[in-house]
Amino acid sequence: MKAHFQAAIDDRIEKAKDFFIFVGEIFSLLFQTIKCTFSGKFYTARLMEQINLLGFGSTSITVVIGLTMGLVMTLNFGYGLTKFGGTLYVPAVVSLSLAREMAPLFTSLLVAGRVGSGIAAEIGAMNVNQQVDAIRALGTSPIRVLVVPRFWAMIISLPLLTALSFAVGIIGGMIVCKTEFDIIPGFYLFKVFSTVKLHDYVSGIFKSMVFGGIITIFACYKGLNTKDGTKGVGITTTWVVVTASILILVTDFFISKIFLVIWN
Amino acid sequence: MSESILELKNVHKSFGKNKIHRGIDITLKKGESLGLLGGSGTGKSVLLRSIIGLERIDQGEIIFHGERYDHLMEDELTPYRIKISYSFQSGALFDSINVFENIAYPLFEHTNFSYQQIKDKVRDMLKLIDLPGRESVMPSDLSGGMQKRVGMARAMILNPEVLLYDEPTAGLDPANTLNVVALMQKLKDKGLASIFVTHDIPSALSLCDRIVVLHEGKIIFNDTPIKFQTSSDPIVNKFNVHKD
Questions:
Q1: CB-based contacts of A32: which residues, under 8 Å, 6+ apart?
Q2: Mean pLDDT in residue range A201-207
Q3: Whole-model pTM?
Q4: ipTM associated with this complex
Q5: Which residues in chain B are closer than 8 Å to A130, comparing Cβ atoms?
Q6: Averaged pLDDT of chain A
Q7: Under a CB-based contact definition with an 8 Å cutoff, are residues B122 and B100 in contact?
Q8: Which of B45, B49, B72, B78 is the best residue to mutate to test the A interface, defined by the most A CB atoms within 10 Å of its own CB?
Q9: Cβ–Cβ < 8 Å for A140, B109
Q10: Domain B4-94+162-239 adopts which CATH fold?
Q11: Which residues in chain A touch residue B49, judged by CB atoms under 8 angstroms apart?
Q12: pLDDT digits (tens, 9 = 90+) for A38-51
């Protein structure tokens, strides 16, 4: 009984140790990524390539998610608020929700699925095929070559995708307001721009930058540590999408709280 | 062939409780070819990976031209990785870029050559490995033997002093094996020192100046191919199937 209890404690201690090592390695990768950015060779061409692949390549799904969010939110808020005579508040509620929460959150979750899994699978496959070892053996750094361009590509692209998602969402809301609630586009846009303040935009943009960093660092970390061949690549991909999505949701709460404290 | 360029002194390496190397001592002289033999799982590839710094040794020293480098940080290993090159068993070519970009990769990274100079060097290298005009081919469109030769070309494009071959003839048909061995002979004739991990005994005997046999983490034989063929050691003789 005592031995069983001791084994259980040892197991917990081992798991806790592994967790702290994992956290340490994540922060170490983040630190090395930033260090490599500001020292030594920087691959501008690779950065551009990644912005094209990760950012520009995600525009179509961003437009779809943005438009859908705008349409659905306006429809629901519209019918909900109409019951209490608050139809005219629909543009304000929709635009504020989109700018602060919905656009950065949903765009990031979608990008975590599309881009996070892609990065993890690509680097993971390179790792199991010894291409990452080859990068090292040829006197170059996998962090500099693989992680840095992807990290900055996401930090640059995700806020732009969020802005696009917000803009398309606003257009979606405008369409529903006009067709369902007879709110003319001029009034709708006036209410949108008078309600959403600079700090609301800043909050959304800042969040998406943080989410972009989370997606890339976790995807690259897991990709660089992929083992067990193609099976390992599959496990890595799933892990990255799930972990990044959960972290995005948790981080969103804390950043929202910080911004509300700062601006109110 | 007297000057020692690479030395391994009392190298120990374990993975968890599994002790791979238990005090390995090897000296590689300038222009010398050393064949590293041993059963599967005896740590031949791990030894090469330790020399290039892909694995950290637990104890001992690895010295290049009198300078110990096994304890250095990843960034500090770059000068050694330019002078000591590693040819992977699989070739480990970057599959998203073509043959030219693969071979030119170290030149773009470590030299200030113009694009035209790099193009010329890659063209010359492709001639040397008997694959002229294949610059634009993707690695997936090459056979296994061709991929290995392109991997070797990438490893030697910076004119290293030592080339580490990890089973370069494994999995190849006899014709491709001959191509790869001929290429290794060409490089040997140019004065390149090498360590050749292999199970291909005839190739090792024809190419190498010295044969080293690893067994249970230790070196049990380190002498010339002739001595290897006439050895009376029963473990050495297990590898010596071509004795007669």
A1: A143, A147
A2: 92
A3: 0.87
A4: 0.90
A5: 88, 90, 92
A6: 92
A7: yes
A8: B78
A9: yes
A10: Rossmann fold (3.40.50)
A11: 133
A12: 988 888 999 999 99
User: What letter would DSSP give residue B87?
Assistant: E
Whether residue B94 and residue A136 make contact (CB cut-off 8 A), yes or no, is no
Give residue B241's pLDDT band: very low, low, confident or very high (50, 70, 90): low
Work out the minimum CA distance from B85 to partner chain A, whole angstroms: 7
Measured between beta carbons, the chain A residues lying within 8 angstroms of B15 are none
Question: CA A120, CA A226: separation in Å to the nearest integer?
Answer: 9
Mutate which of A138, A227, A233 to test chain B, going by most B C-beta atoms within 10 A?
A: A138
Answer yes or no: do A133 and B88 touch at CB < 8 A. yes
Mean pLDDT of chain B: 89
> Backbone dihedral region of B31: left (phi > 0), alpha (psi from -120 to 50 degrees) or beta?
left
Pairs of residues, one from chain A and one from chain B, whose beta carbons lie less than 8 Å apart: 47
Task: State the smallest CA–CA distance between residue B230 and chain A in angstroms.
Answer: 37
| Among the listed residues B167, B37, B201, B185, the one whose alpha carbon sits nearest the alpha carbon of residue B90 | B167
Q: What is the residue extent of each domain of chain B?
A: 4-94+162-239
CA distance B146 to A263: 63
